[in-house]
Amino acid sequence: MMRVAFITHYADLYGANRSLLDLVCELRRAGSVEPFVVLPHRGRLNEVLATEGIAHEVFDFTPWMTARHYEGGPHHRLAQFVRHTRASRARSRRNKEILPGLIARVEQWGVDVVHANSAAVSIALELATGLGKPLAWHIREMPERHYGLHLDKGRGGFGRAIAKADHLICISSAVREDMRRYAPRLPRCSVVYNGVLTAAGFADRLLRKEAAQARSGPFTFVLVGVMHPSKGQLEAVEALSTVLRSGAKARLVLAGGGNDKLVRQRAHALGIATSVEFTGYIEDPFRILLQADAYLMCSRNEGMGRVTVEAMACALPVIGHASGGTVEVVEDGVTGLLYRTGADELAGQMSALITDPERARQLGRTGAIRAAERFTIERYAREVFDIYRSLTSVVQ
After folding, report:
1. Virtual CA dihedral for 65, 66, 70, 76, nearest 10 degrees?
2. Residue 8 neighbours by CB under 8 Å, 6+ apart
3. Would the CA dihedral through 357, 361, 366, 368 be positive or negative?
4. How far apart are CA 29 and CA 331, in angstroms?
5. How far apart are CA 19 and CA 381, in angstroms?
6. Looking at the structure, do residues 284 and 209 belong to the same domain, yes or no?
7. Phi and psi at residue 314, in whole multiples of 5°?
8. Number of domains present in the structure of the chain
9. Which residues span the domain enclosing 326?
10. Can you give the pTM of this predicted structure?
11. Residue 396 has what pLDDT?
12. How deeply is 331 buried, as exposed, middle or buried, from its count of CB atoms within 10 A (0-12, 13-18, 19+)?
Protein backbone atom coordinates (compact mmCIF):
# COMPACT_ATOMS: atom_id res chain seq x y z
CA MET A 1 0.00 0.00 0.00
CA MET A 2 1.31 3.46 -0.91
CA ARG A 3 1.92 5.90 1.92
CA VAL A 4 1.08 9.56 1.28
CA ALA A 5 1.53 12.66 3.48
CA PHE A 6 -1.23 15.22 2.87
CA ILE A 7 -0.47 18.82 3.88
CA THR A 8 -3.38 21.21 4.32
CA HIS A 9 -3.34 24.91 5.20
CA TYR A 10 -6.23 25.18 7.69
CA ALA A 11 -8.31 22.92 9.95
CA ASP A 12 -11.95 23.87 9.33
CA LEU A 13 -14.31 21.83 7.16
CA TYR A 14 -14.80 24.17 4.24
CA GLY A 15 -14.57 23.05 0.62
CA ALA A 16 -10.85 22.29 0.25
CA ASN A 17 -10.69 20.20 3.40
CA ARG A 18 -13.98 18.45 2.73
CA SER A 19 -12.57 17.42 -0.64
CA LEU A 20 -9.34 16.33 1.04
CA LEU A 21 -11.27 14.24 3.55
CA ASP A 22 -13.29 12.57 0.80
CA LEU A 23 -10.06 11.77 -1.04
CA VAL A 24 -8.12 10.26 1.86
CA CYS A 25 -11.08 8.21 3.10
CA GLU A 26 -11.78 6.75 -0.35
CA LEU A 27 -8.11 6.00 -1.07
CA ARG A 28 -7.86 4.19 2.25
CA ARG A 29 -11.18 2.35 1.76
CA ALA A 30 -10.01 1.14 -1.66
CA GLY A 31 -6.80 -0.19 -0.11
CA SER A 32 -4.68 2.10 -2.29
CA VAL A 33 -3.16 4.53 0.21
CA GLU A 34 -2.27 4.77 3.88
CA PRO A 35 -2.80 8.50 4.54
CA PHE A 36 -1.03 10.81 6.97
CA VAL A 37 -2.32 14.36 7.35
CA VAL A 38 -0.40 17.43 8.51
CA LEU A 39 -2.35 20.50 9.70
CA PRO A 40 -1.18 23.95 10.90
CA HIS A 41 -3.48 24.00 13.95
CA ARG A 42 -6.39 22.21 15.57
CA GLY A 43 -9.95 22.41 14.33
CA ARG A 44 -12.91 20.40 13.20
CA LEU A 45 -10.83 18.47 10.66
CA ASN A 46 -8.67 17.04 13.48
CA GLU A 47 -11.79 15.72 15.18
CA VAL A 48 -13.05 13.99 12.05
CA LEU A 49 -9.63 12.51 11.26
CA ALA A 50 -9.47 11.11 14.77
CA THR A 51 -12.94 9.59 14.41
CA GLU A 52 -11.92 8.01 11.11
CA GLY A 53 -8.69 6.67 12.63
CA ILE A 54 -6.48 8.57 10.18
CA ALA A 55 -3.01 9.46 11.43
CA HIS A 56 -2.48 13.21 11.67
CA GLU A 57 -0.30 15.75 13.43
CA VAL A 58 -0.21 19.50 13.97
CA PHE A 59 2.81 21.60 12.94
CA ASP A 60 2.49 25.35 13.30
CA PHE A 61 3.41 26.33 9.72
CA THR A 62 1.79 29.26 7.93
CA PRO A 63 0.54 29.83 4.35
CA TRP A 64 2.54 32.08 2.07
CA MET A 65 -0.39 34.13 0.81
CA THR A 66 -2.62 36.46 2.82
CA ALA A 67 -5.14 39.25 2.43
CA ARG A 68 -3.61 42.72 2.60
CA HIS A 69 -5.70 45.77 3.37
CA TYR A 70 -4.55 49.36 2.88
CA GLU A 71 -6.38 52.49 3.96
CA GLY A 72 -5.70 56.09 4.95
CA GLY A 73 -3.17 58.53 3.53
CA PRO A 74 0.19 57.75 1.90
CA HIS A 75 2.07 57.65 5.24
CA HIS A 76 -0.53 55.26 6.69
CA ARG A 77 -0.26 53.01 3.65
CA LEU A 78 3.53 53.03 3.84
CA ALA A 79 3.39 51.98 7.49
CA GLN A 80 0.88 49.24 6.60
CA PHE A 81 3.17 48.01 3.82
CA VAL A 82 6.08 47.79 6.24
CA ARG A 83 3.97 45.81 8.72
CA HIS A 84 2.78 43.43 6.01
CA THR A 85 6.36 42.92 4.81
CA ARG A 86 7.61 42.18 8.31
CA ALA A 87 4.76 39.73 8.87
CA SER A 88 5.62 37.98 5.60
CA ARG A 89 9.24 37.61 6.66
CA ALA A 90 8.17 36.32 10.07
CA ARG A 91 6.01 33.66 8.40
CA SER A 92 8.94 32.56 6.28
CA ARG A 93 11.23 32.36 9.32
CA ARG A 94 8.63 30.35 11.23
CA ASN A 95 8.32 27.81 8.46
CA LYS A 96 12.10 27.41 8.24
CA GLU A 97 12.26 26.83 12.01
CA ILE A 98 9.72 24.01 12.01
CA LEU A 99 10.82 22.40 8.75
CA PRO A 100 13.50 20.07 10.24
CA GLY A 101 11.03 18.67 12.78
CA LEU A 102 8.39 18.23 10.11
CA ILE A 103 10.81 16.41 7.81
CA ALA A 104 11.85 14.11 10.64
CA ARG A 105 8.25 13.27 11.57
CA VAL A 106 7.10 12.60 8.01
CA GLU A 107 10.23 10.54 7.42
CA GLN A 108 9.17 8.36 10.37
CA TRP A 109 5.89 7.72 8.58
CA GLY A 110 7.86 6.38 5.62
CA VAL A 111 5.85 8.15 2.96
CA ASP A 112 6.22 7.65 -0.77
CA VAL A 113 4.54 10.87 -1.96
CA VAL A 114 3.87 14.33 -0.51
CA HIS A 115 0.51 15.85 -1.45
CA ALA A 116 -0.05 19.60 -0.95
CA ASN A 117 -3.78 20.36 -0.66
CA SER A 118 -3.70 24.00 -1.77
CA ALA A 119 -1.68 26.62 -3.59
CA ALA A 120 -1.21 28.21 -0.15
CA VAL A 121 0.91 25.32 1.22
CA SER A 122 4.44 26.41 0.34
CA ILE A 123 6.13 24.29 3.00
CA ALA A 124 5.18 21.13 1.11
CA LEU A 125 7.83 21.87 -1.52
CA GLU A 126 10.59 22.15 1.08
CA LEU A 127 9.26 19.04 2.80
CA ALA A 128 9.27 16.95 -0.36
CA THR A 129 12.73 18.22 -1.28
CA GLY A 130 14.06 17.41 2.19
CA LEU A 131 12.60 13.91 2.04
CA GLY A 132 13.69 13.29 -1.54
CA LYS A 133 10.10 12.35 -2.41
CA PRO A 134 7.85 13.46 -5.29
CA LEU A 135 5.39 16.29 -4.73
CA ALA A 136 1.83 16.27 -6.07
CA TRP A 137 0.61 19.85 -5.68
CA HIS A 138 -3.20 20.11 -5.66
CA ILE A 139 -4.21 23.60 -6.80
CA ARG A 140 -7.78 24.37 -5.72
CA GLU A 141 -7.99 28.14 -6.11
CA MET A 142 -7.10 31.23 -8.09
CA PRO A 143 -5.45 33.06 -5.20
CA GLU A 144 -5.30 36.55 -6.67
CA ARG A 145 -8.27 36.53 -9.02
CA HIS A 146 -10.75 34.89 -6.67
CA TYR A 147 -9.69 35.84 -3.15
CA GLY A 148 -7.49 38.87 -3.85
CA LEU A 149 -4.64 37.34 -1.84
CA HIS A 150 -1.13 38.75 -1.77
CA LEU A 151 1.67 36.33 -2.65
CA ASP A 152 4.48 36.66 -0.12
CA LYS A 153 7.15 35.67 -2.66
CA GLY A 154 5.56 37.61 -5.49
CA ARG A 155 4.25 36.18 -8.72
CA GLY A 156 7.69 35.16 -9.87
CA GLY A 157 8.50 33.33 -6.66
CA PHE A 158 5.14 31.58 -6.67
CA GLY A 159 5.57 30.55 -10.31
CA ARG A 160 9.07 29.18 -9.74
CA ALA A 161 7.82 27.14 -6.78
CA ILE A 162 4.86 25.46 -8.51
CA ALA A 163 7.08 24.75 -11.53
CA LYS A 164 9.22 22.55 -9.24
CA ALA A 165 6.32 20.26 -8.34
CA ASP A 166 6.50 16.79 -9.84
CA HIS A 167 2.83 16.97 -10.81
CA LEU A 168 0.21 19.70 -10.53
CA ILE A 169 -3.39 18.64 -9.96
CA CYS A 170 -5.83 21.42 -10.91
CA ILE A 171 -9.51 21.22 -10.01
CA SER A 172 -10.60 22.78 -13.31
CA SER A 173 -9.24 23.92 -16.63
CA ALA A 174 -9.80 27.49 -15.43
CA VAL A 175 -7.42 26.91 -12.52
CA ARG A 176 -4.84 25.35 -14.82
CA GLU A 177 -4.96 28.39 -17.09
CA ASP A 178 -4.62 30.68 -14.09
CA MET A 179 -1.47 28.82 -13.00
CA ARG A 180 0.03 29.48 -16.44
CA ARG A 181 0.00 33.18 -15.56
CA TYR A 182 2.70 32.39 -13.00
CA ALA A 183 4.53 29.49 -14.65
CA PRO A 184 4.09 29.45 -18.44
CA ARG A 185 6.00 26.17 -18.54
CA LEU A 186 4.06 24.10 -16.07
CA PRO A 187 5.30 20.73 -14.86
CA ARG A 188 3.16 17.73 -15.61
CA CYS A 189 -0.36 18.94 -14.95
CA SER A 190 -3.73 17.17 -14.82
CA VAL A 191 -7.26 18.52 -14.42
CA VAL A 192 -9.06 16.39 -11.83
CA TYR A 193 -12.50 17.59 -10.81
CA ASN A 194 -13.36 17.19 -7.14
CA GLY A 195 -15.50 14.24 -6.21
CA VAL A 196 -18.45 15.35 -4.11
CA LEU A 197 -20.42 12.19 -3.32
CA THR A 198 -20.06 8.48 -3.86
CA ALA A 199 -22.16 6.98 -6.63
CA ALA A 200 -24.53 5.69 -3.95
CA GLY A 201 -24.60 9.14 -2.36
CA PHE A 202 -25.72 10.79 -5.59
CA ALA A 203 -28.52 8.24 -5.98
CA ASP A 204 -29.59 8.81 -2.37
CA ARG A 205 -29.77 12.62 -2.70
CA LEU A 206 -31.86 12.38 -5.86
CA LEU A 207 -34.26 9.92 -4.26
CA ARG A 208 -34.59 12.12 -1.19
CA LYS A 209 -35.32 15.18 -3.32
CA GLU A 210 -37.89 13.36 -5.44
CA ALA A 211 -39.54 11.89 -2.34
CA ALA A 212 -39.88 15.27 -0.66
CA GLN A 213 -43.36 16.69 -0.72
CA ALA A 214 -43.96 19.81 -2.75
CA ARG A 215 -43.30 22.85 -0.61
CA SER A 216 -45.63 25.75 -0.25
CA GLY A 217 -44.43 29.28 0.26
CA PRO A 218 -41.94 31.49 -1.58
CA PHE A 219 -39.43 30.19 -4.13
CA THR A 220 -36.23 29.59 -2.13
CA PHE A 221 -32.75 30.38 -3.42
CA VAL A 222 -29.66 29.24 -1.50
CA LEU A 223 -26.05 30.45 -1.52
CA VAL A 224 -23.48 28.56 0.58
CA GLY A 225 -20.02 29.98 1.26
CA VAL A 226 -17.88 31.88 3.70
CA MET A 227 -18.93 35.54 3.97
CA HIS A 228 -16.45 37.17 1.61
CA PRO A 229 -16.82 39.76 -1.17
CA SER A 230 -15.61 37.20 -3.71
CA LYS A 231 -18.56 34.92 -2.96
CA GLY A 232 -21.17 37.43 -4.12
CA GLN A 233 -23.60 37.53 -1.19
CA LEU A 234 -24.16 41.26 -1.69
CA GLU A 235 -24.97 40.72 -5.35
CA ALA A 236 -27.46 37.99 -4.43
CA VAL A 237 -29.21 40.32 -1.99
CA GLU A 238 -29.38 43.09 -4.59
CA ALA A 239 -30.86 40.68 -7.13
CA LEU A 240 -33.43 39.39 -4.66
CA SER A 241 -34.55 42.95 -4.00
CA THR A 242 -35.21 43.43 -7.72
CA VAL A 243 -37.12 40.14 -7.89
CA LEU A 244 -39.31 41.07 -4.93
CA ARG A 245 -40.09 44.50 -6.37
CA SER A 246 -41.54 42.75 -9.41
CA GLY A 247 -44.12 41.12 -7.14
CA ALA A 248 -42.63 37.62 -7.11
CA LYS A 249 -42.63 35.55 -3.93
CA ALA A 250 -39.07 34.56 -3.14
CA ARG A 251 -36.55 34.26 -0.31
CA LEU A 252 -32.80 33.82 -0.02
CA VAL A 253 -30.89 31.61 2.41
CA LEU A 254 -27.24 32.56 3.00
CA ALA A 255 -25.21 29.86 4.74
CA GLY A 256 -21.63 30.43 5.77
CA GLY A 257 -19.40 31.69 8.53
CA GLY A 258 -17.52 34.96 8.61
CA ASN A 259 -18.47 38.61 9.00
CA ASP A 260 -21.97 39.12 7.57
CA LYS A 261 -22.45 42.67 8.88
CA LEU A 262 -22.35 44.44 5.49
CA VAL A 263 -24.70 41.93 3.89
CA ARG A 264 -27.21 42.24 6.75
CA GLN A 265 -27.02 46.02 6.58
CA ARG A 266 -27.69 45.97 2.84
CA ALA A 267 -30.69 43.67 3.25
CA HIS A 268 -32.12 46.05 5.88
CA ALA A 269 -31.44 49.11 3.72
CA LEU A 270 -33.29 47.50 0.81
CA GLY A 271 -36.22 46.62 3.06
CA ILE A 272 -35.95 42.87 2.43
CA ALA A 273 -34.43 41.69 5.72
CA THR A 274 -37.37 39.40 6.43
CA SER A 275 -36.77 37.63 3.09
CA VAL A 276 -33.09 36.86 3.76
CA GLU A 277 -32.09 34.14 6.22
CA PHE A 278 -28.57 33.92 7.63
CA THR A 279 -27.77 30.46 8.97
CA GLY A 280 -24.10 30.95 9.83
CA TYR A 281 -21.68 28.10 9.20
CA ILE A 282 -23.29 24.72 8.60
CA GLU A 283 -21.26 21.54 8.39
CA ASP A 284 -23.82 19.66 6.29
CA PRO A 285 -25.05 21.85 3.39
CA PHE A 286 -27.43 19.13 2.20
CA ARG A 287 -29.70 19.99 5.11
CA ILE A 288 -30.68 23.26 3.44
CA LEU A 289 -30.09 22.27 -0.19
CA LEU A 290 -32.77 19.59 -0.02
CA GLN A 291 -35.25 22.23 1.15
CA ALA A 292 -34.51 24.76 -1.60
CA ASP A 293 -35.73 25.40 -5.15
CA ALA A 294 -32.55 26.75 -6.80
CA TYR A 295 -28.90 27.50 -6.05
CA LEU A 296 -26.91 30.69 -6.68
CA MET A 297 -23.19 30.57 -7.49
CA CYS A 298 -22.26 34.25 -7.62
CA SER A 299 -18.49 33.89 -7.16
CA ARG A 300 -16.18 35.41 -9.71
CA ASN A 301 -13.35 33.08 -10.74
CA GLU A 302 -14.48 30.17 -8.57
CA GLY A 303 -11.97 27.33 -8.90
CA MET A 304 -14.66 24.73 -9.44
CA GLY A 305 -17.44 25.11 -6.91
CA ARG A 306 -17.86 21.98 -4.81
CA VAL A 307 -21.13 23.27 -3.42
CA THR A 308 -22.37 23.84 -6.97
CA VAL A 309 -22.15 20.10 -7.55
CA GLU A 310 -23.71 19.41 -4.15
CA ALA A 311 -26.66 21.55 -5.19
CA MET A 312 -26.90 19.71 -8.50
CA ALA A 313 -26.91 16.40 -6.62
CA CYS A 314 -30.05 17.65 -4.86
CA ALA A 315 -31.66 18.32 -8.27
CA LEU A 316 -31.43 22.09 -7.87
CA PRO A 317 -31.04 24.24 -10.98
CA VAL A 318 -27.94 26.41 -10.57
CA ILE A 319 -27.72 30.05 -11.59
CA GLY A 320 -24.01 30.72 -11.87
CA HIS A 321 -21.73 33.54 -12.93
CA ALA A 322 -20.09 32.71 -16.26
CA SER A 323 -16.50 32.76 -15.03
CA GLY A 324 -13.85 30.44 -13.64
CA GLY A 325 -14.68 26.78 -13.20
CA THR A 326 -18.43 27.43 -12.98
CA VAL A 327 -18.77 27.29 -16.76
CA GLU A 328 -17.19 23.82 -16.70
CA VAL A 329 -19.78 22.57 -14.22
CA VAL A 330 -23.01 24.33 -15.23
CA GLU A 331 -24.27 23.89 -18.79
CA ASP A 332 -26.32 26.96 -19.66
CA GLY A 333 -29.93 26.07 -20.43
CA VAL A 334 -29.34 22.37 -19.69
CA THR A 335 -28.39 22.02 -16.01
CA GLY A 336 -28.85 25.64 -15.01
CA LEU A 337 -28.52 29.23 -16.16
CA LEU A 338 -25.46 31.46 -16.48
CA TYR A 339 -25.22 35.24 -16.20
CA ARG A 340 -22.33 37.46 -17.26
CA THR A 341 -22.83 40.87 -15.70
CA GLY A 342 -24.25 41.72 -12.29
CA ALA A 343 -27.32 41.86 -10.06
CA ASP A 344 -29.80 42.96 -12.74
CA GLU A 345 -29.02 40.02 -15.04
CA LEU A 346 -28.95 37.68 -12.05
CA ALA A 347 -32.40 38.92 -11.04
CA GLY A 348 -33.68 38.19 -14.53
CA GLN A 349 -32.45 34.59 -14.35
CA MET A 350 -33.97 34.17 -10.89
CA SER A 351 -37.31 35.47 -12.17
CA ALA A 352 -37.13 33.07 -15.12
CA LEU A 353 -37.05 30.09 -12.76
CA ILE A 354 -39.76 31.47 -10.48
CA THR A 355 -42.17 32.00 -13.37
CA ASP A 356 -41.47 28.58 -14.93
CA PRO A 357 -41.14 26.09 -12.04
CA GLU A 358 -41.44 23.08 -14.37
CA ARG A 359 -38.40 24.27 -16.32
CA ALA A 360 -36.57 24.77 -13.04
CA ARG A 361 -37.34 21.20 -12.01
CA GLN A 362 -36.22 19.84 -15.39
CA LEU A 363 -32.91 21.72 -15.22
CA GLY A 364 -32.43 20.34 -11.74
CA ARG A 365 -33.16 16.74 -12.73
CA THR A 366 -30.78 16.92 -15.68
CA GLY A 367 -28.12 18.49 -13.45
CA ALA A 368 -28.43 15.64 -10.93
CA ILE A 369 -27.90 13.03 -13.65
CA ARG A 370 -24.91 14.87 -15.17
CA ALA A 371 -23.30 15.44 -11.76
CA ALA A 372 -23.59 11.74 -10.88
CA GLU A 373 -21.78 10.91 -14.13
CA ARG A 374 -18.91 13.37 -13.62
CA PHE A 375 -18.24 14.06 -9.95
CA THR A 376 -18.16 10.84 -7.93
CA ILE A 377 -15.61 10.39 -5.16
CA GLU A 378 -14.64 7.01 -6.63
CA ARG A 379 -13.65 8.58 -9.96
CA TYR A 380 -11.83 11.42 -8.16
CA ALA A 381 -9.75 9.05 -6.03
CA ARG A 382 -8.86 6.80 -8.97
CA GLU A 383 -7.58 9.70 -11.03
CA VAL A 384 -5.48 11.09 -8.18
CA PHE A 385 -4.08 7.62 -7.39
CA ASP A 386 -3.06 7.17 -11.03
CA ILE A 387 -0.99 10.34 -10.63
CA TYR A 388 0.67 8.94 -7.51
CA ARG A 389 1.54 5.77 -9.41
CA SER A 390 3.12 7.84 -12.17
CA LEU A 391 5.37 9.43 -9.55
CA THR A 392 6.58 6.34 -7.76
CA SER A 393 7.64 2.77 -8.42
CA VAL A 394 5.72 1.42 -5.39
CA VAL A 395 4.01 -1.82 -6.38
CA GLN A 396 0.38 -2.11 -5.32
Report:
1. -80
2. 16, 17, 20, 37, 38, 39, 40, 45, 117, 118, 121
3. positive
4. 33
5. 10
6. yes
7. -90, 15
8. 2
9. 199-374
10. 0.89
11. 45
12. middle
